[in-house]
Write the structure tokens for this entry.
Amino acid sequence: MQESFLRSTAVLMQPSLAKGPAPRPFHMDPRVQAVIERLHADLCARVSVADLARSVNISRGRLCHLFKSEMSQSPLDYLRTLRMREAQRMLSATFLSVKEIRGMLGNLDRSHFSREFKKFCGLTPTEFRRHINKSKAHDSTHHASK
């Protein structure tokens, strides 16, 4: 179980996403691990840090402290990163509209989602999809000419 969990969170645990030292996944506090598993299990749920803390029977402040010490970011920053990575995946791998993707990721407000996405990857969701499609078209013509 822990092995599959570690594989599924490996991308999020890269030092480029975290401020400070890389997390220590093999010695992770079980409460932090439980919160991470809950966040991965239901990306679209509207969840508060207080709800997450109650689910592992600790205070909100203690959860924030533990989570930040283990993951080098807050629980909500971690959730935001998860959602933005999933949005990137969906924009590049599906034909779903940005509105449908927002709905699948928790019915996020349009302007807030676009702003967060742009802060995360430097492009709005529409610009990102256009860029991905242009890259795919370029790659397919490049490979076809070989």
